[in-house]
Fold this protein.
Amino acid sequence: MELNSMYEDELRDFFVNKGEKAFRGSQLFTFFYDKKRYDIENSNLSDKAISIIKDEEINKVEIFKTFDSKLDETKKFLFKLKDENLIEGVLMDYKHGYSQCISTQVGCRMGCDFCASTKSGLVRNLSAAEMLGQVYEIEKALNIKVSNFILMGSGEPLDNFSEVIRFIKLLHDEKGHNTSYRNITISTCGMVDKIYELADIDIPINLAVSLHQTNDNDRSALMPINRKFNLADLKRALEYYCDKTNNRITFEYTLIKNQNDGKKNIEELYNFAKNMKCHINLIPLNPIDEFDEKRPSKSEIIEFKDKLEKKGFNVTIRRELGRDISASCGQLRRKVEVK
Ligand code: SAH
């Protein structure tokens, strides 16, 4: 396993098993996760400790390209991984601090019709080190500290469950990045089996669910995951999750003109979510080449929001940041790679 995906106790055990003192593990932990460094030869480890780890794997992520929006403070990054794969990330500068969108996989195998990240399928999972690397490389390059993390870049976080949880725990560790679980959000297309697992491990992060359709027929056509876990399965899992964690759910709802913005959808959405502690975030569709649909007009979007609010829902419309730099959903990597 990569050294810079390990917890402190694992690093301590690692050194003990090699005949070194356990505290070397704690030193290395601080070096990786607090100092954000890779250059072991310049650490305060002993020569013996350095020689023990010199052939072990340390996984580095590099910033390959940066794109600055001219419309707002959003920045987009392409990261290069050690096997030359590219992943993307977005950094948003809000009044309350920086918020970063993290990729969890190279590509994605969920196959949602409107999403650019999935169009070439899944290449591979990212390791915890590669997710942390996205955070640390940006923080070092810009000399900032990011306070909010949303796992909404390319990939389905719950499809890479164990590494994603490892990443989140490392991000939370007070000797590492020291981020509150409340400032971390996982977004899922609805992997029901993993939602139960997430509820059971009891870490109080936020859960967002990409809903996008309100009945099984239409949702299955748009999002293949619904053929495996339908809306009734999803609802049961979310009720379990809310009971267990006392959290509310955020539903993401990408508005697609004449597909999911009708009166019928308001009624169906109401029936699906009326008893749930939830919040609805409307996302105007970002057009991609492979999906020949449009977003509703601004006034239609506002009307949809008003109707949901009249039903008693808490609703927001996602602000569009970095429109000029394709700041969403796998579009950038595809442009660079397909070109
Ligand atoms: N796999 C996870 C997280 C990645 S996608 C998930 O499905 O939630 C992050 C969000 O962007 C999801 O809500 C996704 O449905 C949405 N999204 C993807 N492509 C989009 C597009 N072209 N326009 C608007 N939203 C999109």
